[in-house]
Write a structure and sequence with these properties.
17% strand; 162 residues; alpha+beta; 28% helix; 5 helices
Length: 162
C-alpha cells in the first residue's frame, strides 16, 4: 500500500499571505508532488493507494492536480475513487473535511466496491454508519488534567504521593 499525502499548503485558502519568491517556488514544487508520486506507482505497482489532502485540492484553480493524479492512476490500470469526507462522520472527535482518493488495480477491485454506472470508480464512503459522533470530551475527558507544558511523566514525578 502507498499512502501519498502531498503538502497541503499549495492548496489551502489559509495560505493567501504574500510569499517570498523562495516560498512561492517551494509551493510550486510541492504542488507537483502528486505527479511525481504517480511515477512511483508505475514502478512499484502497489495493490492499494490512499491519498488525502485539504478539501480544496480538487478545485480547478489549483491546476487540476487532484484530477490529473487520478487520471494518471487510471491510465496505469487502477480503479479510483475520490470524495470529500468529514472526519466526524467516521467517529473521529474532530470536524475536519478532507479530500480522499483511493485506488486499486482494476483486476483486484471487487464489484461491490465499485460505483454503479461509473466506469471503474471505487466507492469512497461519506460516513461510517456504525461509528457514533464523538466529542473531544467523550474521547479524552477521562484522562487526567495536565498543567501547561507538562507531560504525564513529569506530572507523575512532581505530584506528591505518586
Amino acid at each position: 500500500m502507498f499512502a501519498i499525502c502531498a503538502p497541503c499548503q499549495p492548496f489551502t485558502k489559509l495560505s493567501r499571505k504574500e510569499l517570498s519568491n523562495a516560498r512561492k517556488e517551494g509551493r510550486e514544487r510541492d504542488s507537483n508532488l502528486l505527479r511525481e508520486a504517480a511515477k512511483f506507482v508505475a514502478r512499484f505497482r502497489p495493490e492499494m493507494i490512499l491519498s488525502e489532502n485539504v478539501q480544496g485540492i480538487g478545485d480547478p484553480k489549483y491546476g487540476g492536480v487532484w484530477n490529473d493524479f487520478r487520471s494518471q492512476l487510471r491510465k496505469l490500470g487502477y480503479a479510483t475513487g475520490s470524495n470529500v469526507v468529514c472526519t466526524s462522520d467516521f467517529g473521529v472527535p474532530q470536524f475536519r473535511r478532507r479530500s480522499i482518493l483511493i485506488a486499486a488495480p482494476r483486476e483486484l477491485a471487487r464489484p461491490e466496491f465499485l460505483e454503479p454506472g461509473h466506469d471503474g470508480d471505487l466507492v469512497v464512503p461519506l460516513e461510517d454508519t456504525a461509528a457514533a459522533v464523538r466529542s473531544v470530551r467523550s474521547a479524552i475527558g477521562h484522562l487526567p488534567s495536565l498543567p501547561a507544558g507538562r507531560s504525564t511523566q513529569q506530572s507523575r514525578t512532581t505530584r506528591p504521593g505518586l
